[in-house]
User: What shape does this take?
Amino acid sequence: MLFSSLTFLFLFFPIVCAAYLLARKEIRNYILLIASIIFYAWGEPRYLAIMILTILVNYIGANYISRSRNQLHRKLILAATIIANLSSLFYFKYFNFVMDNINAAFNANISVIDVVMPIGISFYTFQAMSYVIDVYRKEVSVQKDVYKLSLYITLFPQLVAGPIVKYHDVDEQINNRSITFDKVSYGVKRFIIGLSKKILLANTLGSLADKIFAQPLDTLDPFTAWVGALAYSLQLFYDFSGYSDMAIGLGSIFGFRFLENFNYPYISKSITEFWRRWHISLSTWFKEYLYIPLGGNRVSPHRTCINLFIVFLVTGLWHGASWNFIFWGIWHGMFIIFEKITGWHKQEGGLISSVSHHIYAMFAFILGWVLFRADNLTHATTYLKSMFGLNNWQEINSEMLYEMDNIKLLAFAVGILCSMPIFTRILDVPYAQKLKRGAINIWLGILFILSVASITASTYNPFIYFRF
Assistant: This one.
């Protein structure tokens, strides 16, 4: 089920919200758990068993870790639990990729079943591992109520596309949280902002990007190629940040406070800064559970660079079973290592230095997004050549210019404007400023109506991060 579907907006969410808000505090967790299971099973009921098995494995593993007083036993149980999690993730996400590469490398024709990846498995597997690791580190108490642990892993606002919620961030909230008018009001407004980002910006720009990336590359001119790369860069940001906004908004309605997942990443002046602002929940997960355990920056400079390379290689793999994602992770890792060695990300200067650093970062992540979006490595490299006129210098494709209608031009302009920290306090207007608050509420109402109208009129409504 999509947050941006009419079924969710006018059937599932109103029923769940009413049941939750009207119920006694003691049964609200059960209502959310049942709703989350229905939400996940709506589109893929056959994969519900995999998620239930994940819950049980981590519930049992954490309980054994908590009861054991032998450090070696604790480590072995932790290792076994993590291996179980990663084995499931490997099978459903990477098995086909590995077998295809084995067949290609050895000119073989090994016939295997085609494994279909369950939606959200990358997200809920990482959340489950964060729980058992937190218990092992004694940062949280073991959750003895399997229903509460199930709620943490299945909670539908962030179940299928994040943000990745670490257990120690919501441990207390699962056991005890409050619902106030301010939280519900903020949640509804935040949800509408996320919905409008997704429907009005991401979908509009995504339809343009899809058409450009589908063009025959031997006829793709540099201008059109850059328009496609820029459109996709904005589409990806508003698709994923829009989903995160909706997840954070829904969490607030139900009394949860999820940490921010995006902080204007496109204003970054380095790739290091970019990863502090982009998909924050993933980058902090890797920092806490992979980079620091590897030694982080507490080891020699050479080892630190290796640690960074491993983290970004795994980051690429996490995003998908494709060489594109692997090289995309390596691409970012190379820039991170370069900045670590040279101190580029720490350099400060005047306006010219600031602008040059920003242009450098923009080029790095826009070119990287081509790797992210392209169908395969050949498609990516040929597309990148087209951006710089290295295939055959083509004149601007007049047919593609017709695709740039007023709606898409407006989406481009609004997308660029809203990627900058201009409207950061739009939901924090004091009660005393009633006129301003009223104007914002009216504007949010208009955005909601426009979004619903667009959903009704269009069949183009993908969520990019669902496939991760």
Observations:
- Residues 6-176 form one domain.
- The mean pLDDT is 89.
- The chain has 18 helices and no strands.
